[in-house]
From TrEMBL:
Family assignment from sequence similarity: Belongs to the triosephosphate isomerase family.
InterPro entries: TrioseP_Isoase_bac/euk, Triosephosphate_isomerase, Triosephosphate_isomerase_AS
Annotated function: Involved in the gluconeogenesis. Catalyzes stereospecifically the conversion of dihydroxyacetone phosphate (DHAP) to D-glyceraldehyde-3-phosphate (G3P).
Gene name for this UniProt entry: tpiA
Organism name: Sphingomicrobium clamense
The protein, known as: Triosephosphate isomerase
Length: 248
């Protein structure tokens, strides 16, 4: 089954209004690549302006609260993201799991809230270097992703991003065999947990030091349906070559 590739950028805590030109340029390039999907997940402060700067281009958030409203200082609800113009959101990024202690169950609740508001969701998973070196990466990440999925998942609304923590922002990329093996394992686990149809339609993205120079080698591996890109999503000059590699 052919899954459309998704190239999603995660700006993390980078970007102010003066950087929106990068999104405009990325958006214009995406219009020429009709076979792939593209999105940029910006800081919450930029969602509305990025949506206005690039009409028709998918802008996303980087986190969402599981509750619809309430006394949660500093948090953003799914409805607020939609109101600002977001169409997708990342949940369960390892930086949030590590820095804010987010559990699989909390990630699943966030994903459920986002889906209920009509957002697409990218659920992240990935192992630490210790886990990889102990030989437990497949088992750990397989369990993590299954436990991070919400109960109800409308068709085509959820993607998974496999991001080995040791490859994020380090310039170290997982090897082709490691990526292929993990993605195949995750698809198998998704199949066992949610059925073959769900497993086959769910995009599994790779993330961790993806750049224009390595994207072509990663994006056409079996079971790799796109990329979640950090540093190289911050400028059009670096992001567009990754989009082009996906479209080849
Ligand atoms: O964490 C990532 C994307 O969510 C990956 O970041 P880098 O591409 O900067 O390694």
């Amino acid at each position: 089954m052919a899954r459309r590739k998704l190239i999603a950028g995660n700006w993390k805590m980078h970007g102010i209004a003066g950087d929106l030109g990068e999104i405009t340029r990325i958006s214009m390039a995406s219009e020429t690549l009709s076979d792939i999907d593209t999105a940029i997940c910006v800081p919450a402060t930029l969602i509305e302006r990025a949506s206005e700067a690039a009409p028709g281009f998918v802008i996303g958030g980087q986190d969402v609260h599981a509750e619809p409203r309430g006394a949660f200082t500093g948090s953003i609800s799914a409805a607020m993201l939609v109101d600002a113009g977001a169409e997708t959101v990342i949940v369960g990024h390892s930086e949030r799991r590590e820095a804010f202690g987010e559990t699989d169950a909390q990630v699943a609740a966030k994903a459920a809230a986002a889906l209920a508001a009509g957002l697409d969701v990218i659920v992240c998973c990935g192992e630490s270097l210790d886990v990889r070196e102990a030989g437990n990466a497949l088992e750990t990440v397989g369990k993590q992703i299954v436990a991070s999925l919400p109960g109800e998942i409308p068709e085509g609304k959820l993607s998974v991003a496999y991001e080995p923590i040791w490859a994020i922002g380090t310039g170290k990329v997982a090897g082709p065999d490691e990526i292929r093996e993990m993605h195949a394992h995750l698809r198998g686990e998704l199949g066992k947990a949610r059925g073959e149809t769900f497993a086959n339609e769910t995009k599994i993205l790779y993330g961790g030091s993806v750049k224009g120079e390595n994207a072509g080698d990663i994006l056409h591996l079996d079971h790799v349906d796109g990329a979640l890109v950090g540093g190289a999503s911050l400028t059009a000059d670096q992001f567009i070559p990754i989009m082009n590699a996906a479209a080849r």
